[in-house]
Design brief:
Helix content: 25-40%
Order of helices and strands: EHHEEEEEHEHEHEHEHEEEHEHEEH
Radius of gyration: 21 Å
Number of domains: 2
Oligomer: single chain
CATH architecture of the largest domain: 3-Layer(aba) Sandwich
CATH superfamily of the largest domain: Gcn5-related N-acetyltransferase (GNAT)
CATH class of the largest domain: Alpha Beta
Distance between the termini: 26 Å
Strand order of the largest sheet: 9-11-12-13-14-8-15-7-5-4-10-16
Shape: globular
Strand content: 25-35%
Largest sheet: 12 strands, mixed
Length: about 350
């Protein structure tokens, strides 16, 4: 079965591969946005119709302190299976050849458990797993007998507390703020990170300003007046079909990147979620990382939003320790497009 490269003109065909209307809408709307710079996409066609596809989102990746030209090739709506293992393998090989020709050195995938064996057979190495965690701010997880009206005074208190003690405030998410956030990330001791994306202006602009699927918000936290931002969060409100509203923490930066600072930020975001009538604040962290420990300390409950992070060299030799050290992994849901097609 022939494999062909895809371009922006194939957005409608790509969308038709998805079953749900909401997924089709987001896939078609986001297709041209995904195909930027070094990214690529391939597909199988049978009797004139696409049967499956695989795409890549480019980035700069740090692994064990070294920076590589990289791309994410699975997870986050980047692939639709053909329901045939051999055909999926052929698509992935074609995509890797395409990326190697464009200078990509390494690819990574954030996949579910059922795809781990297939990727390992194709040369990917399993590094670590990550989980979504919810901090519930509603009564649904406490007792079904309690009325939601019981939360009304607490929501009013949270709203008034935010007004009287505006430590975490909304700021415009624009070019100026993107440049400021990139400068904050550049201050970090990223050489000590074992895994993480390079979040420069180009990446942050593409990921959060140009994404046509969702409306992101930026909030800054100041622990003391006159000392600048102590933490920054990028969030979005999401209401799943038939579900309850959730405030998603897509990305964050903290001044010292310590467990305590992350916990403080999560606590302030919980107040935002409560005041805005969300049922939960959802975060994501690599298992064993400092960020996960902060979420656990704030009673964030692990959900079935899990990903296995897998890595494969394309045109670079990378020596990886076994087991892979997880304490200094910097990975957010926005880095994997975890909660959207």
């Amino acid at each position: 079965m022939p494999i062909e490269e895809l371009g922006p003109e194939h957005a409608g065909e790509i969308a038709a591969l998805y079953a749900r209307d909401s997924d089709r809408w987001r896939a078609e709307k986001a297709w041209a946005w995904r195909l930027h710079e070094l990214s690529g996409a391939v597909a199988l066609r049978e009797q004139g119709q696409l049967k499956g596809m695989m795409a890549a989102s480019p980035c700069q990746l740090r692994v064990m302190g070294q920076q590589y030209s990289a791309a994410q090739v699975a997870g986050g709506g980047l692939a639709v299976s053909s329901n045939d293992v051999e055909q999926d393998g052929a698509m992935l090989n074609a995509l890797l050849e395409h990326l190697a020709a464009k200078g990509v050195q390494v690819v990574y995938a954030g996949c579910r458990d059922e795809h781990v064996d297939q990727l390992q057979a194709m040369g990917f190495r399993w590094l670590f797993e990550g989980f979504g965690r919810n901090l519930y701010v509603s009564l649904d997880k406490v007792s079904s007998r309690l009325s939601k009206a019981a939360l009304t005074p607490f929501r009013r208190f949270a709203t008034e507390a935010r007004r009287l003690r505006p430590k975490l405030v909304d700021v415009p998410l624009d070019e100026t703020r993107i440049a400021e956030l990139a400068a904050l990330y550049a201050m970090d001791d990223s050489a000590a990170d074992t895994f993480g994306l390079v979040k420069d202006e180009a990446y942050l602009r593409w990921r959060y300003l140009q994404d046509p699927r969702a409306s992101h918000r930026m909030l800054t936290y100041r622990s003391r007046a006159g000392q600048g931002a102590s933490a920054v969060a990028i969030v979005r409100r999401f209401e799943p079909e038939g579900g309850r509203p959730i405030l998603h923490l897509e990305d964050h930066w903290t001044r010292r990147d310590s467990r305590r600072d992350v916990a403080k930020l999560v606590g302030e975001l919980a107040m935002v979620a409560l005041s805005e009538e969300c049922d939960a604040l959802r975060c994501f962290a690599a298992a064993g990382s400092c960020i996960e420990q902060a979420l656990i300390s704030m009673s964030c409950i692990r959900k079935k939003v899990d990903r296995n992070l897998m890595l494969r060299p394309v045109s670079a030799d990378i020596e990886l320790p076994d087991p892979f050290p997880t304490e200094r992994i910097q990975l957010s849901s926005g880095d994997l497009s975890l909660y959207e097609t």
